[in-house]
Structures are given as C-alpha cells and as structure tokens.
Amino acid sequence: MSHLQSRPKLRSSVISHNSSRSTSIDSRSKTQSPILDSSHHISTESSTDRATFSFVRRTLCSQLGDKGRSACATIDEILPPLTSSNEVDLQLYAFIAIVVREYIQTWYQKITSDQVFVEELVNIFAHCTRALEQRLRKVDLESLLLDEIPELLETHIHAFHVSHLPLHRPPIEHDPRHIYHLLWPIPPLSPVPSDQQDVASRQQQVENESSYRQLLVQGALALLLPTEDLENNCLRSLVTEILSESILGSGIGEKASEPWILWEGITKIAVVAKSQISQTKTQGLMDQSVPSSNNSTCQESFKKGNLNLNVNYSVQKVFWLFLQYSFFVITAIHYLIITYTASSSQACRNKSRKKKLSEESHIDDPDLLLTHQVSKKPILDMKLWSCWAILLNLELRMPWLKAMLSMLQWAALTGPGKIGQTDGIIDKILSYIIHTHILTPTTLPTLLRNARSALFPNNLAAGLSKKPTEAECVAIRRRCAVSILELIPTGVRNVYFGLEWEDMVREVEEEVLCIFEDKFCNKHLLYGLVELILVRLMPELSVTKVSTRKESSSKRRTSTRRTLTDEQRRQICEYKRETPNMRQADIAAQFAIERSTVSKVLKNKEKHLANSTTVCNPPKRKKGKFQKLERTISNWILNEVDKGRNVTDDEIKRQACKFAELTNDPDSLIKCEDKNWLAKFNQRNSSETTRRHSEPNSRAKIISLH
C-alpha cells in the first residue's frame, strides 16, 4: 500500500528547508523585503510604455539617424514594423535594444563608428518577425497552449519527482540530475554536470549546448531570411551568433533557467491576474455594502437582547440571502445564455484543407490534390486538465474529486450527444472563453513586458544585474507561493488544503514551486519549449536538414519561373503604393516571387495601375499529362511481362481506363476508349518495350497513382 502514501517532501539541492531555519528564514525575508520591493519598484518603472519607448529611442534611433524626430512620434514612425501591433513592436524592440546595447555596441564601436550594421540588423529582425507572424496565423494556438505545452510540463513534473524520490537509505546517495536526464534525454545537455565533474566534461557540455543552439538558429534563418541576406555569409554568421549566444544562450539557457527568475515570472503573472479579477469584483463589493451595513445594525440590536429585533434580524437575514442567491442564479443563467449565443457563431475548429498528393505518395504530377478532414483534439480532452491535476496533487489530496471530474469528462466526450467532442456545445463555449479572455490583443504585450522585467531587470543584461542571495531566493519563492494562494478563493483554499496560512504557503513551496528549483532540469523544459514552438512555426525543421533545405531553396530560386497575370501585377503595384516603406524583397516574399520580378513590375507601375479591369489572363493548360499516363501503362506492361504473363489488348485498354479515372482527366479517358489509340500505342511502344525488357537486371518502375 505504499502507493497510497502521501508524496514525500522534496528537498532542494540549493535551498534547504530545515525546521530549525524556518524561523530565521521568515525573519530574514521580512527584514529584506524592503530591499526587494524597492528593486521591484524600479524595475516596474523601467517597464512602463513611456520609459520603454524612451529607452528604445535612445538606443536604436540614434544609430538610424533619427535624432530630429518629434518626441510624440509612435514606434511605427521611427522604426520598421515588426508585427501588426504597435504594443507588441514596442516590447520586441525593447529586447532588441538590450541585445544591441549589451552585446553588439560593446565590441562594434571599438572597430568602427559606422552604424549601418545596426540598421541592417534591425531590418533583418523586422523581416524575421513579420515572417514569423505570417506563420503564426497558421498555427493552432489552442492545441499548442492547452495540449502540447502542458504535456511538456507534465513530462517535466513526472521526471523531476521520480528523479528526486529517495531510492536508498543514507549514506547511499544518487544524483537526481542523472536520473532526470535518463528520463528526458536531450543530447546537447550531456554529459550531465555534477560537483565531481572534470573541466573537460564541463567544456564538452558547453560546446554541445552551443552547437545545438546554432543548429536551431541556422535552420530558422534558412526559412525566414530573404535570399540576398541568406547568401551573405558574413551577415548570416553574425546574426546566428547573436541569436544563438546572446538571446538563446544568455537569455534562455543561463538567465531564464534560474529558479528565482521563474518564480519571479510566476509572481508577476499572478499579480496581473489578481488585478484583473479584483476589477471584476469591484462592482459586486459595492452592491454588497448595503446588506452588510444592515447586517451590522441587526447584529448590534441582537447584542442588546431585544427579542423583537432578533426576529426582525432573522427575517431580514433570510430576505437578503434570498435576494443574493436569486441574483447569483439569474446572473449565472444570463452569462451562460450570452456565452452560448456568442459561441454558436464561432467558426468550426475542424477545417478541411488540401495537401499535395505528390508529397504523400510521391507522384510526379503535382496537380493531383487530395482533400481530407483534419480532426482537432477536443479542448476537454487536452493535457491542460491532467497537468493541473498532477501539479496540484489532486489524486492524493482529493481522489474522489479527481474520479468525479474524470467521470464527467468521459460522459461529455462519449456520452449521449457527445457535447464535449470537437465543435460540440462545451467545446465551442470553451473555445469562445479562450479567445475572449486569454488570446486577446493585450495578452502578448503583457507577457513580453513581464518576461523582460524578469530576465533583464532595469533593462540590464544577464551578469550586469545583481543576482539575489540565498536568503533573497527564499523570499522570492515565498512571495510567489503567497501570490498563487491569493488567486484561490478563500473558501476553496481552506477546504482543499485544510491548513493554517503558514502551512499552506509551505505546502505550495514544497509541492508546486519545487519543480523549478534545479537549473539543469529547467534547461530541459525551456529547450524543449523552444524546440516545440519552432517546429510548430516552421514544420520544415522536423523533416529536412539545413543543408538540404538551402540547396532545395537555391534550386527552386534558379529553376522555377512564374508568369504573373495583369491582375497580380496590379495588386503588387497597389501593395507598394499602400506600403511605400516596404522593401522589394519583402514584397517578393509576400507574393512568393523573385525580387527581380517585383522590380520589373514596379518599373511599369503607372501602366499596371491604369488597368482598372480585373480580367485575369486565362490559365495555361499543362501539356504532357496523357504522355505520363502512357508511360505508366508501359511500366505496368513491363512489370507484368517480368512476372511471365502475356498482356492482351483488352487488359491494356481496361488498365488505361482505370488509370485515366484515377487522374480525374476526362480527355485522357476519351483517348483511352478510342480504338485507334491502342494500335498507335502498341506500334509506338513495342520496340522500346522489347529493348528495355532484354536488358539484364531491368525491372520496370511503376508510377503509383494511389
């Protein structure tokens, strides 16, 4: 019955939890809280929009020769747009300004005073972010945020708890990092660092991690950079070094993997969520002020011992309770009706899309398309719910509640009506709530602002900001636990934990926040998260090597030619007129053509814009489709002859009609049914069939049309 015992308390390898030190830790956190609060206040002031804009303007605009701009100018007027949102651009430019100031200007200004390189970097970052935004629109954010990322976190929690379970009695010890790395192996993070590790092994691990980051960045740049920048080896190497070492290495690999950084980030998110919840409760508290005053008056009369007032107080209390609960029920029903009505107008999550059949069955003809239904996972069946259950230890604290919720989930997914399945009633309501409360335009700027204030306090890079001491880390973790508990309603918190306040804080620290106390384990989680997001944004990274992708893109650029219609030329000219600051390379990427084609079209801009008619040139019909069909039949005949069979004319004709039906080409079907075609086919292919069959070790290759 060992599996029914409560989860053992995990001991931190960095921060101890001895009972003898608990009082001293609490006292030290109280005495040092003003220091932390003051630094937090300075960081908050430096992360405001006005301070951020001044910092970006002071760091980047001076290099761009933009000193004479007005101080009231917006971010899109002084710098190229990164995305379609100015709020997101401001936060992204703050990250770029930190990287440029701390990692580029420190060595570039010693070489030359020319600032053109910084301008080129800003343009490259702008091109990459715009390309990423276009790819982000095609990503299923609901599945990514609610299913794949929680599954990654669930893997981290499971590996962390298993690796920290005591396997033997003292003095026999085990290394939790080795066990964690075996449960979640990431080759770039090997060999596993330890206290007894030699210098050579540590250096090898650092080199492996650096090579891994460079491979990720090189693969992403091969898909995002324009052609002329990708062929510039010097510029590509510098950008790769900046992104892999300055951003991924220093920002994520070193700074973001620190436990206190993650705790500070969770605290900031909890504070933002608490402020939003408090705003919604303000009106409710104002409405409850009148009955509370009446209750206080009645309580005073009750203390006087007046029986009549006591009866009046009871009747008045029942009356106000009835009004409160009636108001609550009516409000809940009204909210459900509005939510259901709004969710009914939501677009279906399952959408049919087309994929090239040549990508799946390797057919030479790329015009054959296969339409199929892509089924998405129901929101009720995503990993978010199981991840929360594991994180809160629901199976051990309240197993009956977990069983009841699992039964309700199963009934909604497989019961009558399947209301929890994709595009069901519950699925549409949950999707509507997610899009109106989580995936809002203000969510991403807030996350970026909190991430910047946590990674770069006061806009200082890693190593320049003061690293907290061990006692300050304890205070940060305690503040994080308190902020999490304050999000939970008081009644739910008391019923679920059933402990005093200090015990509840300690439980959250030891059971929830302890999973982020090891920097090496955090690296597995963060690198896995980065790799998951990159693969979802750029699926080519998971199927093609970087060198192969570069070769195929260069071949495609040199071999493919595209003929534009008059309407397409007019659209290019109108797009250039609407966005005059857009480069020709960006326009070429937008319309999937070469930059030289855009230059030729824009030379005759007046001519194309004068053609107001929207008549498109008739599409050219591809030639050679019936010749491919005949070649397929010839291969089939050779294959049958190799088997020792004699193929008759009726079989050839019947097989040709079958292949023609698979191609969905009525012209090919008519030609196959013609009597004269068979005689011409036999006369044209008899000599070639005899010659190919007489060659040694010759096996005919069949072009499969299935």
Describe the structure concisely for a colleague.
The chain has 32 helices and 2 strands. The chain is mostly helical and 706 residues long. Helix 4 (86-111) packs parallel to helix 19, helix 13 (307-344) packs across helix 18 and helix 20 (470-487) crosses helix 22.
Uncertain regions spanning at least 5 consecutive residues: 1-42, 64-68, 284-307, 352-373, 555-560, 613-623, 689-706
Q: Return the average pLDDT rounded to an integer.
A: 74
Arrangement of strands in the largest sheet: 1-2
State the total count of DSSP E strands.
Answer: 2
Number of helices: 32
Binned, the helix content reads: 55-70%
Rg from alpha-carbon coordinates: 33 Å
Content of β-strand: under 5%
What kind of sheet is the major sheet? 2 strands, antiparallel
Shape: globular
Q: Structural class of the helices, strands and pairings?
A: mainly alpha
End-to-end separation:
56 Å
Entry keywords:
706 residues; mainly alpha; Arc Repressor Mutant, subunit A; two-stranded antiparallel sheet; globular; phosphatidylinositol binding; nucleus; cytoplasm; Phox_assoc
Structural write-up:
By secondary structure, this protein is mostly helical. Among the domains are: 140-256 and 518-558, no CATH class; 561-610, Arc Repressor Mutant, subunit A (Orthogonal Bundle); 625-694. The protein has helices at residues 19-46, 49-61, 75-78, 86-111, 116-136, 141-163, 176-183, 199-224, 227-230, 233-256, 259-287, 289-303, 307-344, 357-361, 383-391, 394-397, 399-414, 425-437, 443-455, 470-487, 490-497, 501-511, 519-537, 546-559, 566-578, 584-591, 595-603, 605-610, 625-642, 649-662, 666-673, 675-694; strands at 352-356, 369-373. Strands 1-2 form a two-stranded antiparallel sheet. The radius of gyration is 33 Å and the shape is globular. It starts with 18 loop residues before the first helix and ends in a 12-residue tail after the last helix. Keywords: Cytoplasm, DNA-binding, Nucleus.
